[in-house]
Amino acid sequence: MAPWLFLIVTVVGALFTFNAYLPQRRTGPLIVPSFFAGWLTSELSAHHLAWQLVASVIFVAAGALDAWPGWLGLGISFASWAALLALRPLSRRAAPVAEAALSAGLGPDYRGEIDADLLEKIERTPPPPQLPLNPFRFKRPDVTLTRDVAYVPNGGPRNRLDVYAPSAGAANAPVLLQVHGGGWVIGNKKQQALPLMNHMAAQGWVCVAANYRLSPKATFPDHLIDLKRAIAWIRSEIAGYGGDPNFIAVTGGSAGGHLSALLALTANDPEYQPGFEDVNTRVDAAVPFYGVYDFSNHYDLQAMSGMNSFIGKYVLKKDPMQDADAFRRASPMHRMHPDAPPFFVIHGSHDSLASVEEARHFAQALQQVSKEPVCYAEIPGAQHAFEIFHGLRTSMVVQAVDRFLAWNHSRYRKTG
Question: Cystine design at 42: which of 20, 272, 335, 342 (Cβ 3.0–4.6 Å)?
Answer without folding.
Answer: 20
